[in-house]
């Protein structure tokens, strides 16, 4: 979705959220049933989460647009001058070095940007998963690298350590949870938004269970704005 569509979606979600909050706060002569109140509270929580996710996507789109504007411009006059005094090769090297520095500087500003990053394991082929850049890991040539955390961890080793970002994890490299994956900038791909419009009863999906791991699942039905699903243990 483009920036305009995301902004419009945010306004729609916020309008729905205001309606739900008004319904929750309204007083009537007959008290609403407890179950109906609980449904409205769950709907409010879902809308709040949807607004937060859409605003995050909007931020990602804006950051991507800013990065595109940071494309280094070719300095033709400088290159021509260097070539005229016999420093053509040096000019090319300096131009390449300047471009690399600008790419690194741009990458250092993308903390929080959503991407798709490679995840490697000894027992499975290379897979790409949605992730978020934490920060710049190294700007050393020939390949700058960044550290990413997984948005939808499908196994415990991918689940972000709750103490890592605060610097209080005592286990360091031996921690059972993820302290992020270091990947080369050239390996990053465009973030893939989740398309919820195609979901229907029987559709396969990823669902987050109580251990906060996303497992393969199958939709059984819908009730009160919630999906009922069952974990697909065959996969």
Largest sheet: 5 strands, antiparallel
Structural class: alpha+beta
Instruction: Please give the radius of gyration in angstroms.
Output: 24 Å
Beta-strand content: 15-25%
Name the poorly predicted regions: none
Number of helices: 4
Q: Give the overall silhouette.
A: globular
> How far apart are the termini?
31 Å
Number of strands: 8
Helix and strand pattern: HHHHEEEEEEEE
In order across it, which strands form the biggest sheet? 4-3-2-1-5
Task: Round the mean pLDDT to the nearest integer and report it.
Answer: 75
Helix amount: 25-40%
How would you characterize the overall build of this protein?
- The protein has helices at 3-25, 34-69, 76-84, 88-107; strands spanning 114-121, 124-138, 145-150, 181-184, 189-190, 204-208, 214-223, 226-231.
- By secondary structure, it is of the alpha+beta class.
- α1 runs antiparallel to α2 (34-69) and α3 packs antiparallel against α4.
- It starts with a helix and ends with a strand.
- The model has no long low-confidence stretch (mean pLDDT 75).
Concise account of the structure shown:
With 235 residues, the chain is of the alpha+beta class.
List the keywords.
235 residues, alpha+beta, 3-stranded antiparallel beta sheet, 4 helices
Helix and strand layout, with pairings?
Layout: H1 3-25, H2 34-69, H3 76-84, H4 88-107, E1 114-121, E2 124-138, E3 145-150, E4 181-184, E5 189-190, E6 204-208, E7 214-223, E8 226-231
Helix pairs in contact: 1-2, 3-4
């Amino acid at each position: 979705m483009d920036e305009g569509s995301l902004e419009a979606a945010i306004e729609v979600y916020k309008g729905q959220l205001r309606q739900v909050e008004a319904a929750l706060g309204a007083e009537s002569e007959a008290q609403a049933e407890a179950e109906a109140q609980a449904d409205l509270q769950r709907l409010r929580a879902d809308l709040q989460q949807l607004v937060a996710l859409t605003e995050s996507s909007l931020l990602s789109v804006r950051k991507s647009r800013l990065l595109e504007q940071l494309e280094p411009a070719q300095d033709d006059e400088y290159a021509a001058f260097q070539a005229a005094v016999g420093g053509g090769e040096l000019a090319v090297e300096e131009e390449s070095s300047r471009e690399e520095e600008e790419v690194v500087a741009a990458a250092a500003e993308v903390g929080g940007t959503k991407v798709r990053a490679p995840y490697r394991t000894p027992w499975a082929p290379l897979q790409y998963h949605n992730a978020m850049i934490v920060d710049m890991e190294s700007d050393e040539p020939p390949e700058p690298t960044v550290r990413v955390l997984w948005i939808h961890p499908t196994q415990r080793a991918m689940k972000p350590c709750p103490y890592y970002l605060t610097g209080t994890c005592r286990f360091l490299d031996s921690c059972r949870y993820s302290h992020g994956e270091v990947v080369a900038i050239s390996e990053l791909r465009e973030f893939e938004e989740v398309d919820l419009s195609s979901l229907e009863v029987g559709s396969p999906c990823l669902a987050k269970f109580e251990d906060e791991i996303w497992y393969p699942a199958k939709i059984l039905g819908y009730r009160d704005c919630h999906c009922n699903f069952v974990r697909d243990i065959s996969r």
